[in-house]
Amino acid sequence: MQPLIDNARTFGQRPEEFARLAEGQSPDVLFITCSDSRVVPALITGARPGELFELRTAGNIVPPYALDRPTAEAATVEYAVEVLGVTDIVVCGHSHCGAIGALVRGDDLDAVPAVRDWLAHAADEPASADATDPACAEAVQHHVLAQLLRLRSYPCVEQRLASGRLRLRGWYYEVHTGAVHEHRAGTDAFEAL
To answer: Among 5, 59, 63, 146, fewest CB within 10 Å belongs to which?
Structure first.
């Protein structure tokens, strides 16, 4: 923790670099990814402060849209689309994902009931050709596509897609190599960026 504290102390000593951020934000991208500490959106994309609007959830899960039961995730998506006017939403899954791995393996999550109940929001039970594969690549990629489909059910997303003012993108990040792959509709495969 101490190195993080030391950096935080010196971080604010360059106010001229951050003054413009007080004027507001206008990111073009909502980046939805896992809470996993190995996935750092700004590092992966090279984004500077103000360039990405981030939503991080365990397993990069987008819960079902329900107006009568608002969620922080739905509020974040709605704000990004309606207020900030993002033009792209990226759902980025990653290799070695503990959440998706637990679903694939059928782990007993009774000791962590909040995690168990959150993972129940996964759109489908991710399938995997090899449940012993720690990367869970196939399952994670399937899960990313399921979350993109789930996003389409959000009214603000549906409207912006219909008008051509929004694009959805599915990414898969390999934590062990740093490689990023994007789903291509034409081939229905995740290909290197």
So the answer is: 5
